[in-house]
């Protein structure tokens, strides 16, 4: 699709993900990755909607860089295209309530925001999220 990342709808992203699933097409590698694991069931957290934003120095406003869903393995490939990472403060927003609701599960946290700083744009950054309906934790992965 020729739609830009900043204006793509959740439906378009979901449709694109379905087109590549099971066809052996590798997604674009990304210098920024995440992996969401459901610690209550011991399995990948499937399909939580997430958004990536960067804090703009001028005006101190969050600029949305894109949104996506995790794949069946709980990963979100292609979160930030190669060459687009800059030093700065970033935020990953995870719609945890929507994800739990799809499974008929109540949750304590309606969303999780992970704010982190990238100081070297040449390094790869991995931000895992360990999640249950009642708790979450995150760390700088490798």
Describe the structure.
The protein is mainly β and 142 residues long. Helix content is 13%, strand content 37%. The chain has 2 helices and 8 strands. The protein is globular. Residues 1-26 have low confidence and may be disordered.
β-sheet strand percentage: 35-45%
State the distance separating the first and last CA atoms.
32 Å
| Helix content percent band | 10-25%
Shape: globular
Number of strands: 8
Strand order of the largest sheet: 2-1-7-8
CA radius of gyration is 15 Å
Query: What are the secondary-structure elements, in order, as H or E?
Result: HEEEEEHEEE
SSE class = mainly beta
Name a few traits of the molecule.
globular; disordered N terminus; 4-stranded antiparallel beta sheet; mainly beta; 37% strand; 2 helices; 4-stranded mixed beta sheet; 142 residues; 8 strands
Question: What is this structure's SSE topology?
Answer:
Blueprint: H1 10-20, E1 32-38, E2 43-44, E3 49-56, E4 61-69, E5 88-94, H2 96-102, E6 112-118, E7 125-132, E8 135-138
Parallel strand pairs: 1-7
Antiparallel strand pairs: 1-2, 3-4, 3-5, 5-6, 7-8
